[in-house]
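User: Quick sanity check before I run a bigger batch. Here is a single chain. Can you write out its predicted 3D structure?
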Amino acid sequence: MVNSNKHIRHWEISGTKCSLNQYDFIWADIPAERLKAVRSLETMDIRNLQDSLAQECPIKAWPYGMPTVVNPYVVILGMSPGVSPASGDSDYNTRPAYELPAGGVPHPRWYYADSRGYWDKVRYLCGRFLKAIDPNFRETQAFSLSGHMNLSTGASGRASDVTVQRELADWVVRAISGGLRPRYVVGLGLTSALRKSDVQTALSNLGTSPVDFTKPDRVRPFHGYQKTSLAYREWDFTRPDGGMLTFVSWPQHPGRAPFTNRQIWEESVSEYCRTISAS
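Assistant: Done. Predicted structure follows.
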């Protein structure tokens, strides 16, 4: 069991003309309210949010492979950017900083087309996720409330081979919980990583209370594939601002069997979305 209280910091938004009430709506539990609120901000307000998010980042500007918006409703969390760059992507080797989080529109790197279709599956997940909460949401609206973060910037195709950069991992999780403030964090490929003490310590910063990663709050079997036992595992957290955050460990990484089969991947998304649309 890990106590995260000592790791929590307060993310301050300073130098803005926006009222606190307007900022409260930016992190509302209702996606449409989040989107409307962030789209009503002035350019300077967005810049203040960006500066606040990046101020303690151990990497200059924003880490490679982590496109997000300033107030995502759902954040995908992985171990690393992976090893399947798009054809001709010279940035894969140099790993330059990404643009700061976007406000009210999808991040400019959100439409990355990797060679193994990972990002297609991520976009499918986020699009369906938001639509399950609000059936009126269009794809662009959903992507305007979506983000992807990683615990490392290294290149690895297997989560077990990733060396967690502790300073970066701690910052990533604190930035998610205290800065981005999503309602959901979906962990992809983190099942085995959750057994590691350094990953547990980093992820404990998702909330303000102790957490036992061996005891999820809920386990939901994935019924769409019967050849092996797969399940969604959920932990509930209270963010530093008092809002709720649910961490979902997905049954399997989209690049691993059986989710290499696009139909089975989409069924895993549909099955989980039915649980949140009914809640």
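The chain has one domain: 15-277.

User: Great, the batch can go ahead then.
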